[in-house]
TrEMBL record:
Pfam families: C-C_Bond_Lyase (PF15617). Its cofactor is Mg(2+). This is ATP/GTP-binding protein. Mg(2+) binds at residue 201. InterPro entries: C-C_Bond_Lyase-like, Citrate_lyase_beta/mcl1/mcl2, Pyrv/PenolPyrv_kinase-like_dom, Pyrv_kinase-like_dom_sf. Gene3D superfamilies: Phosphoenolpyruvate-binding domains.
């Protein structure tokens, strides 16, 4: 699979200076963690789940979570498990499918070995599990169960903890909770693909819900948690993990209080005024701003609950020609001694040593999401990625 692989080759050639790389479930963990992109969640109870997965793959989705936790009722868990196994067996029987990375969000550690056993040979389609409400105490049993299931199945399986408990929200317990999480994930580092943020649960601790014309970063108490998670768990010194962006809850807004957050000019230049109006109508201007703020705050990828969000996440994840040029200049071997140089775009200073970690991270993103041509904007990428 590859990002934008659902587009025709001639369209990719028009858009990309450097096309996204190909990868699969057996690719190196570092590559996969950066390549998750828009991870689309779906309840495991959907009766045509296998067909839904195939459909979304053809629309550009490269990672999905099939949920047995909050998205279904307590009374539906057994049915969800049965349906999940049945749909995996269905997919495994279809030859030649190019499927996304598939994860299952479980409720308890005991579900992990049980589902792996029930999947049988179809476990080859599974990339791992998502662990809800992760703390050191709750999380270790999930990670132990994952390790055992990996041995039993003979397949590499990853875990993605969700950080969403009240202990992380409350100031008096936050540092201790983060230190515990850090100990747990470090012990199982090779099995932890990414850390996911459960901002809806964070808001729940205070009876809050952000409006469609506000981002998670406008809710200061939530923004403070994101900052501390990145501070302690997302460092660029080799000790950090990929931390993914919070879910965007909206996909249509009947009324708004504030002005749209999308400037006219990028859409006028691309002759895409109608696209701008459509994005605003569906609350996508807030999503686009939040994705930009995710990147600015050290997050990569995003939890998505609606297919319409996927093209936006992927379009804004593509590395611009300018970013790529700056990163390449900084990482040239002859720059190893440091120094300062002017950007090839003559609009900024590139300081080799302080900007090296940014350049390395940008190059990894360029590998999985590609580099846009100099005259290609995010509007062009977004327009190309939206299903017709």
């Amino acid at each position: 699979m590859r990002h934008f692989g659902h587009l025709a080759p001639e369209v990719r050639e028009r858009l990309f200076h450097r096309e996204p790389c190909e990868f699969d479930a057996d690719s190196p963990a570092r590559l996969l963690s950066a390549a998750l992109g828009a991870t689309l969640y779906s309840p495991a109870t959907r009766p045509r789940l296998a067909d839904d997965i195939v459909k979304q793959t053809r629309r550009g989705v490269v990672s999905m979570v099939l949920c047995l936790e909050d998205s279904i009722g307590d009374e539906d868990v057994a049915e969800g498990e049965e349906n999940l196994v049945r749909q995996f067996v269905d997919l495994a029987a279809r030859p030649g499918l190019d499927l996304p990375l598939l994860f299952v969000r479980v409720r308890t550690p005991e579900q992990i070995p049980d589902l792996v056993r029930r999947l049988g040979p179809a476990v080859r389609l599974l990339s791992g599990f998502v662990f809800p409400k992760f703390t050191e105490e709750r999380g270790i049993p999930f990670l132990e169960a994952l390790t055992g299931a990996e041995v039993a199945s003979g397949r590499r399986l990853f875990g993605m903890p969700v950080l969403e408990t009240p202990e992380l929200m409350y100031r008096e317990s936050r540092v201790e909770a983060l230190e515990g999480i850090a100990r747990a994930v470090e012990k199982y580092r090779s099995r932890v693909l990414a850390l996911r943020l459960g901002v809806t649960d964070f808001c729940s601790s205070y009876g809050l819900r952000r409006a469609p014309d506000m981002t998670a970063y406008d809710v200061q108490i939530v923004a403070s948690v994101i900052a501390d998670v990145v501070n302690m768990l997302g460092r660029a010194d080799g000790s950090g993990f990929t931390v993914t962006g919070p879910v965007w809850e909206y996909f249509r807004v009947p009324e708004r209080m504030f002005k749209p957050m999308l400037r006219h000019s990028p859409f006028l230049e691309g002759q895409a005024v109608e696209l701008r109006e459509k994005l605003i109508e569906h609350a996508m201007d807030g999503l686009l701003r939040e994705i930009s703020l995710d990147h600015a705050n050290g997050l990569l990828g995003k939890t998505c609950i609606h297919p319409s969000h996927v093209p936006a996440v992927h379009a804004l994840s593509v590395v611009s020609h300018e970013e790529y040029g700056d990163a390449a200049d900084i990482l040239r071997p002859e720059r190893g001694g440091g120094g300062v140089l002017r950007s090839a775009y003559t609009n900024k200073m590139n300081e080799v040593k302080p900007h090296r970690a940014w350049a390395e991270r940008t190059m990894l993103r360029a590998e999985v999401f590609g580099v846009a041509h100099e005259d290609v904007s995010f509007v062009d990428l977004l327009a190309a990625g939206i299903p017709g």
